[in-house]
């Protein structure tokens, strides 16, 4: 049984917006739906089948892990639901109080924002990103433009929209404005995508043409072109300030950055191979040790916290970064739906790998995410969730 308590610091601003009595009521009465991706091939899931620019995945197994953790923590009423056009009716029939979004969408050109937009229209609070952030993080050129505007480091880039003929970099001023006299290597990848699929590394502009045209032919969507960075590659998680350690909830007063890891490249690898092609195992990464590289860990954490604050995030993201030939870090992307599978003997995930260093378990990680959402709702938006407020008052 998951044992919990709430730390009470001297400053009320550094405490969650609920106590143990309120939490016990929520455990007993709060009805939670963990939502995974619906399949457009299932009868009744959509009106018309459309295009998927990003490869589809249901994430149902991970949704099951999250639901099981919520039950172990103490929430008694938890169910799984698919995201499709019947979602609103199912939520209404189940009298759901709170949703947890673990879906990459069903279909269409901005699939990650569909479920949060629907839930906002329905008045259903949820653990997840706003529609704006979900879409911005998934459309990588939008995220990178925001990084530039915020003064945060990212590699040079441009986005190319097909449909007007083949990609001809020497005939467009946009390519020269983005890269100047830089002649390669380049990264070409889908602007909206998952699991590092269809990512190409090319050494020169001539090879870039073929890569860009091939990606567009497959995705029929924007293609992101970036300057290749040859250095070390890292990722780090960052979430809200309410954190559970050993079942003890505390409010840190700042975003919580954790699980800084360095990815390993095999011989001949220039980018991290997709987990769909080569599963992530312990030998493909290691935790960055703050005892040996304290300045690196601090810089990774500071950048992650800045992104969380600049984008007004409300839940967990994973930041991917890589260093250039001078060792300077550049932000590659932000993953709005990082893998949250429960670790086991034959399965792991990047964000869970550093939990032990934080004195946290997988259940602590899940507890932290729902506690952050409940804190946000009850501290700042209580008048918008009277159905939840009534459970604790």
Notes on the structure:
This protein has eleven helices and 16 strands. It folds into three domains: 5-128 and 377-392, 3-Layer(aba) Sandwich (Rossmann fold); 156-227, Dna Ligase, domain 1 (2-Layer Sandwich); 233-370, 2-Layer Sandwich (D-amino Acid Aminotransferase, Chain A, domain 1), CATH 3.30.470.20. The protein is of the alpha/beta class. A hairpin with a 5-residue loop joins strand 15 (317-323) and strand 16 (329-335). It has helices spanning 20-29, 60-73, 87-94, 114-122, 131-138, 140-149, 173-179, 205-219, 294-310, 362-380, 386-392; strands at 5-6, 31-37, 77-83, 98-102, 126-127, 157-160, 186-190, 200-202, 223-227, 233-239, 242-245, 248-251, 256-263, 285-287, 317-323, 329-335. Helix 2 packs across helix 10.
The main pleated sheet reads as:
5 strands, antiparallel
Number of strands: 16
Remind me, CATH topology of the largest domain? Rossmann fold
CATH architecture call of the largest domain = 3-Layer(aba) Sandwich
Average pLDDT: 92
* SS-based class: alpha/beta
Given the structure, what is the number of helices?
Answer: 11
Tell me the count of domains.
3
Search tags:
D-amino Acid Aminotransferase, Chain A, domain 1, Rossmann fold, 11 helices, four-stranded parallel beta sheet, alpha/beta, Dna Ligase, domain 1, 3 domains, five-stranded antiparallel beta sheet, 393 residues
Strand-helix topology:
Layout: E1 5-6, H1 20-29, E2 31-37, H2 60-73, E3 77-83, H3 87-94, E4 98-102, H4 114-122, E5 126-127, H5 131-138, H6 140-149, E6 157-160, H7 173-179, E7 186-190, E8 200-202, H8 205-219, E9 223-227, E10 233-239, E11 242-245, E12 248-251, E13 256-263, E14 285-287, H9 294-310, E15 317-323, E16 329-335, H10 362-380, H11 386-392
